[in-house]
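Working notes for the structural subgroup meeting. M.R. asked for a predicted model of this chain before we commit to crystallization trials. I am recording the input and output together here so anyone reviewing the notebook later can reproduce the run.

Input as submitted:
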Amino acid sequence: MKAAVYNVEKKKPEIVEMEVPDIGEDEILLKPMSVGICGSEVLTYRLTGPGSFGHEPAGYVAKVGKRVANVKEGDRVFVHHRVPCFVCHYCRRGHYTMCADYLKMGFDPSAYAEYTRVKARNVKLDTIPLPKHMSFDEGCLIEILSCAWRALKRGGIHIGDTVLIVGAGFVGLASIQLAKILGARMVCISDLVDFKLDLAKQVGADVVINAGKEDVLDRLCVENRGRKADRVMTIAGSIKVLQQAAGLLDKGGTLIQFGPTEQDATFPWAPNDFFYNEISYIPSYSSSPIDTKEVSHLLFGGRIQVKNLITHHFPLDRIEEALEVKARATDSLKIIIHPNE
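Returned structure, recorded in token form:
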């Protein structure tokens, strides 16, 4: 079979021929049909561990181990690439992505392959059958949607809040909808690309701001009765943006960091600004099976619209080109790889 494997030394993917993986009694063999490209896959420093490259799949169950009971051959499913143990110190406190076993999970060899092995814990705890009306393209988005969902929940949105989202890529546009579901009164979003902001209006943004053409803080205060935002979610992977976002928060507000910044980046901060204004800082990394279940119900029930946020499709052998489009980011939202016809 063909698979895309990331060459760490060359810092690019390579298409290789390999044997179809064998599966154990509690495992399944997945035939990925749609695999979303994640923003982390253009951050080469994040592609060193198992499961980092090719981790947003939906496809057919091609084969099941004899002890698998929750899915059968031929089922259409989404599979989450990383699953915590649920019993360790961190899991018992709800920090599932800090579990020591979490980063050990992942697909073999990757979801960017004609077939991939799904490990027992992933099969048992986070394999979700897709209903008939749900396409593979939509189903593969459960992973990234669950990450945004968890970030917004951790940010503690209250009913009536004003939420500002910085970055109008796929995650930002999905987060508009998720923030509304959680009770936000007003959702504002800023970006530098007008076509993304136009789509933001279509999916429910109350205020769109082109940060290259107008002052974000001034516009926010005009639209929000003179106040800053109660919650600011930063998606753009920039330390400068993260620092600026802190200045957009009202008293008692929360800064939610969704995406990573540049590697080893730092910025100066004034603790008293956080102290006297009771500002909270909440970073949120990845998601858990709890989040994928919750967000799948929202997606399957039509409460999240994602079809018009998918902009590009590529076959497996054009994955390098797809990653270049993703890195450019000016003319794309969600990009889907199709390992099988």
